[in-house]
Amino acid sequence: MPGLQGEKAGTPPTALDRITTLGGVAVLLLVIATVAFASHNRGLQDTVSAGQATLAKAQTAANLDNTLIRMLTSAAVEHDDADIKALLAANGVTYRQTAAATAPADTKTTEDAK
Q: Does the structure show a pLDDT above 60 at 107?
C-alpha cells in the first residue's frame, strides 16, 4: 500500500515504527506477566483452600472430642466409676461436680393439677 512508512526495502524504521514495536513488546510482556501472576495466585488459592479444609476437619474432630469427654465425665459422675475418672484424670481432664436440681418424680406441676 502506498503511503505506509517503512514499506520500501532498505529504508530505516522511523521513530513511530520503533515506538509501535516497543509498545507491542511491552504489551506482550505485560500479558505474560499477568498470566504468570494469575497462575501463581491460583496455586496460592488452592493452598489456602486445602488449609481451610484441614481446619474444618480439625474443628469437627474437636467437637467430637468435646462431646465424648462430656459423655465420659457424665458417666463417671452418675455411676461413680473410678476407672473412667482415672482415665479422664490421666488425660488432663478435670471437672467439678455440681448439685443437680431435680424435682421429685411424684410432684405435679400446676398444669397437671388442672
A: no
Task: Give 3-state DSSP helix, strand, coil % of the chain, rounded to 5.
Answer: 70, 0, 30
Amino acid letter for position 42: R
Higher pLDDT, 100 or 34: 34
Rg from Cα positions in the chain: 38
Closest CA to 18 of 30, 37, 8, 5: 5
Residue with cell 505485560: 30
Angle, alpha carbons 14-20-25 (nearest 5°)? 130
CB neighbourhood size of 76 (10 A) = 21
CA angle 109, 112, 114 (to 5 degrees): 115
What gap in Å lies between CA 55 and CA 59, rounded to an integer? 6
Task: With 0.70 as the threshold, say if the pTM is over it.
Answer: no
Range with lowest mean pLDDT among 25-29, 32-36, 62-66, 110-114: 110-114
Place of cell 459423655: 71
